[in-house]
Amino acid sequence: MKNIPIKDTAAAFAAALVLAFSGALNAAPALDQLQAGEGPAAVPPPAASAPVNGAAAEADAALNSVFSFFGEPSFPAAQPSALNRGKDAGFTAELESQRDNYLRTEAYFTTGKGTKVRVSLAKGNCAGGGTACEGKDKAVFTLMADSGPYFLIRGMDIANFFPIYSGSRTVEIDGESYKIKLYPKPLKPVNSELEVKGPSGRGIKITMQRLSEVLIDKCVPIRLSRDYRMAYATEVDQADGKPKFTARRQLIIYPFPMTSDHAHTVLSVSDIKAGGTRFPDFEPSYTFSINAGVLKIAQ
Known about the structure:
Elements: H1 28-36, H2 56-66, E1 73-74, E2 79-80, E3 91-94, E4 108-110, E5 116-123, E6 139-145, E7 150-154, E8 160-161, E9 165-166, E10 169-173, E11 176-183, E12 193-197, E13 203-207, H3 208-216, E14 220-223, E15 227-237, E16 244-255, E17 264-268, E18 277-278, E19 287-291, E20 294-298
Parallel strand pairs: 1-17
Antiparallel strand pairs: 2-18, 3-20, 4-5, 5-6, 6-7, 8-9, 10-11, 11-12, 12-13, 14-15, 15-16, 16-17, 18-19, 19-20
């Protein structure tokens, strides 16, 4: 059986994307927190100002255009399929070492104590559960400190779209306060900016285009009937209105280069059996299996 090595792709990814992200990373403590699905307490976010007059629909349409680079996910149904034992796997990966790497990007700022805090972008479900909500309601930004805390922040909680929305969130890291804001640019969504501002000029300001590039750099390249980039991700749940990690895992698979509508595929890891699973609506000639934490994809 041949193994295709896992490595970060160095290619720049100019098209904006989401799920949705220099220096060495020591992520073991953050992994433990992710598994627990709980982050530290943060300063409660102020409520974003409510839309006024008749401008709500216009503001919502503008914000949806900003988050359009997320694209719509498909969730193909799984079907048991026996593995072809005589066929070598076209792709093999030990999954746990890749968990949530797309959140540990090379876009980061450094606190006064020298802790690197990495920013990225994920995609949750809808408030109340399900996926039948607009893109602006699924966007979740992440801050993940090396050897420290992490934070999940709804995009709409920090959106600033004058005069309709004025949101922000303040978090505490290493005893310092950092205020997070999002500045949408509806006419050119990829230029929308995430700003994290802390003491003594510490923080980061990054466009959605650059954030998508560093995110995709952390995904695993896969060659099936075409090229893809794959993230092994912890599911983000917003059913109660507050994003949090769950115990569930997903494979988020992006066509590479991205299609014009930025569509992507989400496979639930719990659907992929050791004996083999096919997804007739996604790469139907390939069988997926996970055994002892190892993903194999064979034709």
